[in-house]
């Protein structure tokens, strides 16, 4: 039923693949709306315990489709804030708030918003040929989709400024070296490796993983006291899951646990 994305669910894993390869999966309004609809389904579907985000073709995502704008750039004073408010910010928040691990499989070039959407995900695998480009500065814009928030946290201010101000291409290898991503995979193996990891995570106590994600996502914004309290609150919730009970029971009985994600 989708035209601009490919969406499927199998073995507890939702696969959402951007599908406008002729323009390197850049976002037009229609693709934004389909991605939003897929997130709605993921949230409703109890079967889904891990999300894999990737792209079709040779690119991951080239950011905003510059030929199919949400906001007319030739207008005397176009308000790009509208496009950010309506589409990019809600997408970044949806990824961060999704109560499950989100794996991004960056299958090729990732530019503009397309370079920052992966940074909002929890684990980033990149194809050896992938490149990360903060292309915004080349057209007079500011990194959006959380770029100026995620980059310094992931790679430090010096590298963040270099990427954002110079807009150079960072290869998958150097992205790995600088701590921007988690793994580099061969191009033809990337998707299967990402799905393998996702399927294995989907057998874990995924409600607990959602709490871990929440704690880590807030860690740089809290002082220690406040954060210890958040950990306590999340541990309280985790301790009430069926999976915690199962994890302890299996450990005591020296058998393999069977987690259900609740
Ligand atoms: O405006 C708002 O709503 C606010 C939100 C802004 C968010 C943003 O993301 S702003 C940043 C937008 N993105 C860019 O500035 C990146 C533009 N693209 C590039 O710089 C290059 O395409 C790449 C470095 C990503 C890849 O280069 P390369 O040489 O591998 O491929 P290519 O030949 O440039 O691109 C292949 C095709 O995709 C080409 O079409 P064609 O000639 O084969 O018909 C190209 O025009 C198209 N394409 C690539 N990126 C975009 C695009 N078409 C529309 N919009 C794009 N962003």
Main β-sheet: number of strands, strand sense, barrel status? 6 strands, mixed
The small molecules bound here are: ligand T3D
The secondary structure category is alpha/beta
What's the helical proportion of residues? 40-55%
Tell me the overall shape: globular
| Strand arrangement across the biggest beta sheet | 1-2-3-5-7-10
The CATH topology of the largest domain comes to 2-enoyl-CoA Hydratase, Chain A, domain 1
Whole-number total of structural domains: 2
* CATH architecture designation of the largest domain: Alpha-Beta Complex
Strand content: 15-25%
- In CATH terms, the superfamily of the largest domain is 2-enoyl-CoA Hydratase, Chain A, domain 1
Order of helices and strands: EEHEEHEEHEEHHEHEHHHH
Tally of alpha and pi helices? 10
Cα(first) to Cα(last) distance is: 30 Å
Search tags:
262 residues, alpha/beta, 2-enoyl-CoA Hydratase, Chain A, domain 1, Lyase 2-enoyl-coa Hydratase, Chain  A, domain 2, 2 domains, six-stranded mixed sheet, four-stranded mixed sheet, binds ligand T3D
Short recap of the structure:
Pfam families: ECH_1. The chain folds into two domains: about 5-200, 2-enoyl-CoA Hydratase, Chain A, domain 1, CATH 3.90.226; about 205-250, Lyase 2-enoyl-coa Hydratase, Chain  A, domain 2, CATH 1.10.12. The protein is about 45% helix and about 15% strand.
């Amino acid at each position: 039923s989708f035209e601009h994305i490919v969406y499927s669910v199998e073995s507890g894993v939702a696969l959402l693949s951007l599908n406008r390869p002729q323009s390197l999966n850049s976002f037009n309004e229609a693709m934004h709306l389909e991605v939003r609809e897929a997130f709605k389904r993921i949230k409703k579907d109890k079967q889904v315990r891990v999300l894999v985000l990737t792209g079709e073709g040779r690119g991951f995502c080239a950011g905003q489709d510059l030929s199919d704008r949400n906001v007319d750039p030739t207008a005397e004073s176009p308000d790009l804030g509208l496009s950010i408010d309506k589409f990019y910010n809600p997408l970044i928040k949806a990824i961060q708030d999704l109560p499950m691990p989100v794996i991004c499989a960056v299958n090729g070039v990732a530019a503009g918003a397309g370079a920052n959407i992966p940074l909002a995900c929890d684990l980033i695998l990149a194809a050896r040929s992938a490149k990360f480009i903060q292309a915004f500065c080349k057209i007079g814009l500011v990194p959006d989709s959380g770029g100026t928030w995620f980059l310094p946290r992931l790679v430090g201010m010096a590298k963040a400024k270099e990427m954002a101000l110079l807009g150079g291409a960072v290869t998958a290898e150097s992205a790995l070296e600088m701590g921007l991503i988690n793994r580099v995979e061969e191009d033809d193996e990337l998707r299967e490796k990402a799905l393998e990891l996702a399927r294995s995570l989907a057998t874990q106590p995924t409600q607990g993983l959602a709490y871990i994600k929440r704690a880590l996502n807030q860690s740089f914004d809290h002082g220690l006291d406040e954060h210890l309290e958040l950990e306590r609150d999340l541990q309280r919730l985790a301790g009430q899951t069926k999976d915690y009970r199962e994890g302890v029971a299996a450990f005591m009985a020296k058998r393999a646990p069977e987690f259900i994600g609740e």
